[in-house]
Every structure is written in structure tokens, then in C-alpha cells.
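Standup notes
- DV: blocked on the single-chain target, sequence here:
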Amino acid sequence: MWAGFAVLYATLAVLNLTLGNGLTWVPVLLLGLAACFVVGGALYLHASRRGKFVVWDELLAGVPAPGRALDLGCGRGAVAIMTALRFPAAEVDGIDLWRSVDQSGNSPAAAAAHVRANGVDDRVAFTTGDMTELPYEDASFDLVTASLSIHNIPTRDGRDQTVAEAWRVLRPGGTLVVLDISKARECAERLRALGAEPTTPRDVGWRVWWSGPWMATRVVTATRP
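- DV (later): unblocked, structure below
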């Protein structure tokens, strides 16, 4: 899509210069729009293909080694696999409804294939389920992660319930790490209402800009007392 708009505006600029209409600012504006779409597309591609993995590598390096971890909205399993690879003694669960509208190619089969390819299929398990009603007992996990998944829940009540469920299944001393495009501050508010002391949502920088700073990704963490 980004490349398509860039080509469209560049073509219109060339046509405008060729045909001429007496308005010299028009082709300049069109070329500027084309350049914006090129840069935005490049940033989006980088965030999707590399940036989010670099950021998660840094985030996981900063948490204590878990015995058991859970990834909410695990998709094709990237964060669950990264957790298993970083912490060789950890058992990792992932839960998702596997909706392709949230992530292309999203399916249990795709997640299982990625786990096998990374050699951690003996320690990673996936469950089909709803983040707003987690099928796990209280205080089951030392680490709960959510990577760009909570904003996909359409209602504030649903997102608040997801945060409450994540907090419920977290063991004392366990860590919750939420990385999200637009709902990190909202998650922090809900955590405070639950009695937690979350970090102030922090912009993780250009590496996970989804086209530009107007779609920045932020992280919020909290440790259960």
C-alpha cells in the first residue's frame, strides 16, 4: 500500500511537470507526499521485520528468568519463541484467537511450525482462547507478555479485563510487560486501579514506529508484590 501511494504521487508529479498548469508548487507537493510514503513504508517494514524483535530482545534481557511464562495474543509465536530461547529452563505458554485480521497468516499451525523450526517445541505450548478470560489458575506465571495485541481488543472494558486477567495469573514477584501502539497508557491506568505500580509508558523509539512518530510503540511494565 505504501509503495503504491508513493508511485501514484510520483507519477502525478511527473505528469504535472510534463503537462504544466502554471502552479509550480503542485509537483513539489506531490513529490513531497511520495517521499513521505516511501519513508513511512520503510519504517513500517523495518518495525515489522526487525525493529520489534530488537526491542523485545532488550525487554526480555531486563526481566528475571521465569520458570513459566505466558504470551497474550501470541500470533505466530515470535515472543513466546524468543522467551524460550533466552530462558532455557522456562516453560512458555501462548494464547490467541488466531484472527487473521489481527495478523496475516495467523494460525495455530503457523505458530507450531515456527516453534519446531526454532527447536523449542518441547517447552512452548499454545492454547486457543480469549485474553479477556484466561483459562489459567491464579498466580500461574512468573512472566506475562503482550506484544502489540491489547489494542486489537475493540472495547475499553475488554482491554481492562485483559489487564486484570494478566495481573491475576501473575505470581508474586512476577513481571508483566506490555508493548502496544496506542493502549499502553490505558494499561498503566488499569494496573494502578488494581493496586499495581506500573512504570510510566515509555516510547521505545523509531525502531517500532509504524510509519512515523504518530504511530509510536510504548512499553509499560509492572512487578506484582
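- Follow-up: Residues 3 and 38 are 6 Å apart (CA to CA).
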